[in-house]
Amino acid sequence: MDFNDLQSTWKNENTENVKLPNHLEKLNSANMPLEIIKKNLKK
User: Fold this and answer.
1) For residues 35 and 41, what is the distance between their CA atoms, to the nearest angstrom?
2) How many Å apart are CA 43 and CA 40, to the nearest integer?
3) Does this model's pTM top 0.90?
4) pLDDT grade, residue 23 (50/70/90)?
5) Residue 15, Cβ density class (10 Å: 0-12 exposed, 13-18 middle, ≥19 buried)
6) Cα 13 from Cα 7, distance rounded (Å)
7) Is the dihedral of CA 17, 23, 28, 29 positive or negative?
8) How far apart are CA 30 and CA 1, in angstroms?
9) How many other β-carbons are positioned within 10 Å of the β-carbon of residue 2?
10) Cα 13 from Cα 31, distance rounded (Å)
11) DSSP for 1-43, written as a single string
């Protein structure tokens, strides 16, 4: 698949039902468990 095919597929994709979180804190909290594991591995 070349870039043009990928771009046309992306443009044709339905985006009406996509819901984004209201706050970036929700996104950061989703990564929190991984961050804890990373910090513990570095010790």
Assistant:
1) 10
2) 5
3) no
4) confident
5) exposed
6) 10
7) negative
8) 32
9) 6
10) 27
11) --HHHHHHHHHHS--TT----S-HHHHHHHHHHHHHHHHHHH-
The predicted-structure confidence for 9-19, as pLDDT tens digits, reads as follows 888 888 778 77
What does the block give as tokens for 11?
A: 């443009």
Residue 34 tokens, joined: 């991984």
Say how far apart CA 20 and CA 34 lie, in whole Å.
Answer: 21
Cα angle 29-32-36, degrees, rounded to a multiple of 5? 165
